[in-house]
From TrEMBL:
<feature type="domain" description="Alpha-L-rhamnosidase six-hairpin glycosidase">
    <location>
        <begin position="327"/>
        <end position="649"/>
    </location>
</feature>
<dbReference type="InterPro" id="IPR035396">
    <property type="entry name" value="Bac_rhamnosid6H"/>
</dbReference>
<dbReference type="Pfam" id="PF17389">
    <property type="entry name" value="Bac_rhamnosid6H"/>
</dbReference>
<dbReference type="Pfam" id="PF08531">
    <property type="entry name" value="Bac_rhamnosid_N"/>
</dbReference>
<dbReference type="InterPro" id="IPR012341">
    <property type="entry name" value="6hp_glycosidase-like_sf"/>
</dbReference>
<protein>
    <recommendedName>
        <fullName>Alpha-L-rhamnosidase</fullName>
    </recommendedName>
</protein>
<dbReference type="InterPro" id="IPR008979">
    <property type="entry name" value="Galactose-bd-like_sf"/>
</dbReference>
<dbReference type="InterPro" id="IPR013737">
    <property type="entry name" value="Bac_rhamnosid_N"/>
</dbReference>
<feature type="domain" description="Bacterial alpha-L-rhamnosidase N-terminal">
    <location>
        <begin position="55"/>
        <end position="199"/>
    </location>
</feature>
<dbReference type="InterPro" id="IPR008928">
    <property type="entry name" value="6-hairpin_glycosidase_sf"/>
</dbReference>
Amino acid sequence: MKKYILLTLFIFTALHLSAVDLNGVKWISIEKTLTKPNQWICYRKAFTLEKAEKTAMLTISVDSKYWLWVNGKLVVFEGGLKRGPNPDDTYFDSLDIASYLKKGNNTIAILMWYWGKDGFCHKNSGSPGLLAKLQSGNREIISDASWKVKVHPAYGESQEPLPNYRLPESNIHFDARKDIPDWMKPEYDDSNWQQATIAGSYPCQPWNQIHPRPFPNWYDSGLTEYVSVERSFKSDTLIIKAKLPRNISVTPYFEIEANEGLFIDIRSDNYKGGSEYNVRAEYVTKKGKQSFEAFNYVNGHAIIYTIPPGVKVNKVAYRETRFNTEHVGSFECDDIFLNTLWQKSLNTMNLNMRDAIQDPDRERSQWWGDAVIVSGEILYSCDSNAHGLIQKAIRNLVDWQRKDSVLYSPVPAGSWARELPLQMLASIGKFGMWNYYLYTGDTETIRHAYPAVKRYLAKWKTDERNLVIHRPGDWDWGDWGENIDLPILDNAWYCLALEGAQNMASLLGYKEDASVYHQQIKTIKQAVNTFYWNGKVYCSSDFQESPDDRANGLAVLAGFADSDKWKSIKTFLTDNFHASPYMEKYILEAFFVSGDVQGGLDRMKKRYKYMVDHPLTTLWEDWQIGGAGGGSINHGWAGGPLSLLSQYIAGISPLEAEWNKILIKPTLGNLKQVVCTVPTKTGTITATIKNQTGHLYSIDVTNTDNKIIHIAFPKDKIKQSLVINGRKYENNQLSSINQHSVKYLKSDESYHYFEIKNPTINISATH
C-alpha cells in the first residue's frame, strides 16, 4: 500500500513544483572542519502546528542520499538522486507528508549520507548539504540555523577491499558501540547537539539550482523473509547464505545477541560482479540484543553473512528497493525457452533501473548503448512512471554536452567525459530518442534535445565518396568481440541517427533541416552499396578479417539492403556469430523486419541457449560469465529479446505517437500460441494469437484505451472466410468492408489490413 501512496504523492507533487518558493531557505551543513568523504550526518527539527492540514508539502535536496522520519515513522527510504541534472546543479524531492503530521508537537529527522567523491554516475558537490522546506497551510518550516545536527559517530571507514574507482558509494562500516539509539524519535533529547551551520541562501554554490526528481521514489518492500537460509561453518565462523527469490537489489538486515567488539561482514554473492569489487557492509557489535540494516543497497541471488563466535543470530531479512513502476507488460507462448528468456530480460531490466539506466553493481553508470536497448524494454513492460527514467536519461545526455559539441556518456558523471561515438549516434537515432517519442508522445523532451542533437551531428563529415569519415572519439569502440567492421558501423549508425534527427526536425517544424538529413541518408546509402557491397554481404574494402555479422544486421536496419540483398545476408547471418549481446539485438531485429521470423527465432535460441539454461535469473554482458568487458551478470543490453518478442512476434507497436493508433501484426513462425500485454501511456493492449496448424488462426485483442487498432491478418490463413467480432465475411467481400467499427484498409503480399474501433476484438479464420 505504501507504494501507491508514494505514487499518488508524486503525481500530486509533479503538478505543484513550479509553485515552490525557496526564498529565504538556507542550505545547512556541519562545520567545514568536520567535513570528510563517506560521512553520515543526522539532522533534527522540532516544531509545532496549530492544526493538522490536509496537505503538507516537503521539498528536500541533499548531496548525496537521505532517509526521512516524521514523528518517528520512516517516510522515505533512500531519498534523493545522484547529482547531475547538468554539470552544476542538484536534484530535489517533493512529497506530501500531511498524513505523518499532527496538531501540536512534531519532529522531522533526516539521516544524510554524503559520499564526497565523484563517480561514473555522480558529480560530487564538494560539501555535504541539506535544503528543506515544509509548507503546511500558512506555516513554513525551513532549513536554517535552528536545526540540530550531529555527525553519526557509528559510521566509519571500512577495511579493504574498497569499492572500485567508478563508484561514488563507499562500503558501510557501523560500530554499534558508538550508536545513537532512537535519535530519530520525537522524545529523543538533542540538547547537546550542535546548531546547523548555514552554508548559504538558496541558490548558492556548490549545489546551485535544484531540479525536480522526474519520477517517484523507490518501491520499498519493507523487511521480508528470505526464500531460504543455509547455515554452515568455516572453522568456528558461521556462514549464513540467505537466498533471494531472484537477482534483486536489497538492503540486508539482521537481529542478533552478542558480546561487544565482534566483527560481522555482509555482502551479496555478486560482490565481485563484473570482476571488480562493489559495495558491502561491516558491523561491529555492542553488548546485548541489537539489530542493523545496511543502507547501501547490493544485488545478487543471495546475501552472505559472516558471523564470528559469540554472536547469536535471531533473525535475518532483507528489504527490496527498486524503481517504482508496475511491470504490466508480459509475453507468453508455447515455447518455454522464449518465455524464460523474456522473463530473464525483465529481471535484468528491473535491476538496471535506478537513479539512471545502469547496471546495479560494478559501475551503476548510464552508458547510452545500454540505455537505448533498455529503454525499449521499459516501453514494452513498464507503466508510465518509468517514462521519467528515459526522459531523465535524454535530458542528462544533452545537458552535459561538452563545449566542443561532443555528446558523451556515461552521464551524470564527475570522473568521466569521454565520447564513444557510435553509442552517441545510437542515442540520438531511430532506436534512441525517436523511439522514446513514438511510444510516449513527449514532444517537449524532443524539443529540449534537438539543438544538442543538431550540434553533435554537425561534427560528423563524409569523404569524397560520400562515406562517413571515421571519428575515433575518446574511446574507439564498436562492440566487444572480433570481426568489428567499423566503416560499415559508422555509416549505418550515422544514417540511423540522421533518420532520428529527420523525424525530430519534421515534428518540430524545421523543414529545411529535415530535407538536409533526408538527402544525406539517400546519398550515404547509395555510397555504401557502391563501395561496401561485395555481392554477398557488406564488407569494407580495407577490412581484412571475415565479414561482420553485426555490421550486416545494422546495415539492414539502416535501410541499405533491399530484399534481394537480404537473401544473401540471411545465409551469412545463419552461420556467423561474432557480436556480443549488445549488437546481437540489432542482428535479430534485422531478421524480424525482413520478415524471416523463424530465422530470427532460431538464431535467438542458439545465441541465448547457455544464458537461458543457466540457473542465474538475469542476462549477461557477454555470452560467457567473466567475458569481455568484465562480464557483468546483469547487463541490460542483453535483454533485447524482451522488446523484440513483444514488438515483432506478438506484433504490437504504435502507428502514431503516444499509441494514438496501434498496429497488431503477429508473426509467429512455428509458434502455436502467443499471449502478450503491452502498456500504452494510459492503459494496456493484450493480444492473444492462436495458430493451430490445419485448424483455427485467430487474433483476440483487449484494448483498455479504446484506441484505433489496425490488425494485419495473414492471407495464407484464410481459405474462404473471415469472422470479425462475430460477423462472417467471405473472402471476396473483405475489400468492401466499410462500417463504423470495421473498415478494410489495404493488402500487401502477405496481409490484409483492417481498422477496428472496439475495446474487444476477435478476428479468426479456419485453414
